[in-house]
Amino acid sequence: MRALRIDPDKLRYKAMIGTGGIGSGSFFALTGHHTLGREESRGGRFLDRRDYCKLHIISHYMATLLGDGFETIPIGRVGTDDIGAKILTEMGATGMDLSYVRSSPNHPTLFSFCFVYPDGSGGNLTTEDSASSYVDPGLVYEAEPECARFASQGIALAAPEVPLKARKALLEMGTRHGLLRAASFTSEEMRNALDSGMLNKVDILGINLDESAAMAGAPGESESPDDIVEAAVEQLRKANADMIVTITAGERGSWCWDGSSLGHRPKCSAEVASTAGAGDAHLAGMIVGLAAGLRAREAHELAGLVAGLSVTSPDTINKDIGRESLRAFAGECGAPLSESVRSLMEG
Asked: What are φ and ψ of residue 251, in 5° steps?
């Protein structure tokens, strides 16, 4: 059994309606540890790994960990190519409702080129003219009956790799129907999200250290991670005092602002195969925890476990993550956990 031990009748939230990128990609292992330069040529090799895009990653963990009592409803577009067809098959196999995922015959499925350093860290380059680029408010509004159906008991998720206009429409729609509103933004989008007022319609924000630096006004290299996080949280508190904020920083662990105080958790020790997708796994773990009725600090514990276990897979979705594997991983890494989190992984 992969789902967490949750009585479906006791779920705080019953469904997720979300938009974001749906696609695939390739991994390329770079030779050398130093950061790739702007005009540098570098050798390397392609890796036998599967890459997935943000909405798919987050949706996968929510669907599998929350089980049959929870509905996962993605909103997006894929091409009519083989990649798009394969991704839809995989998403459907986890029980997702694909009623609002459209096929676009004139645009390819979203594709990312991920580069990986020898230590497992890396980054990615993502196409901007894909089917995901044509997710618009009109498509989002088609799913409004789902928001109405789960009024006050649903989650609206706005993830990157689709236009900001579509994500803003979903957050506004979630606001109208009293949904929990979750979001993430790229570094380039952070200031826009702040200045446009989008953050006023977000209840839980999941970002990384680089995105935090963008929010904090790009502090200098001498700034410590703690200083960057504190500066970003201060900015975010001014924008939305009630927002829960999680900030991931790889080897440095993660932080959670729960609306009253800032807490830090070290990373869970694991043999890293790839860090790609770990931030999305962390956000998924947070949302899963909140849906299961955990408090923010407790959900942060679960998020750390999901993210920590995700990096042991070379793929950006670790399909082995479930109740049993999380329980075993928690024992191996010795992470301190509250009883409410442990109970979700029992039996």
From this structure: -60, -25
- pLDDT at 220 (0 to 100): 53
Give per-residue pLDDT as tens, 76-99. Answer: 999 999 999 999 999 999 999 999
Q: How many CB atoms lie within 10 A of CB 283?
A: 29
What distance, in Å, lies between the first and last C-alpha atoms of the chain? 9
Q: Which of 196, 171, 197, 165 is nearest to 183 (CA)?
A: 171
Secondary structure string (H, E, C) spanning the chain: CCCCCCCHHHCCCCEEEEECCCEEEEEEEECCCCCCCCCCCCCEEEEEEEEECHHHHHHHHHHHHHHHHCEEEEEEEEECCHHHHHHHHHHHHCCCCCCEEEEECCCCCEEEEEEECCCCCEEEEECCCCHHHHCCHHHHHHCHHHHHHCCCCEEEEECCCCCHHHHHHHHHHHHHCCCEEEECCCHHHHHHHHHCCHHHHCCEEEEEHHHHHHHCCCCCCCCCHHHHHHHHHHHHHHHCCCCEEEEECHHHCEEEECCCCEEEECCCCCCCCCCCCHHHHHHHHHHHHHHCCCCHHHHHHHHHHHHHHHCCCCCCCCCCCCHHHHHHHHHHHCCCCCHHHHHHCCC
Using a 10 angstrom Cβ sphere, with 0-12 exposed, 13-18 middle and 19 or more buried, the burial of residue 191 is middle
- Are 135 and 101 in contact by the 8 Å Cβ rule? The answer is no
- pLDDT, one tens digit per residue, over 21-32 is 999 988 889 999
For 267, the token pair is 């990373």
State the pLDDT confidence band at 297, using cuts at 50, 70 and 90: very high
Beta strands 15-19 and 71-79 are parallel
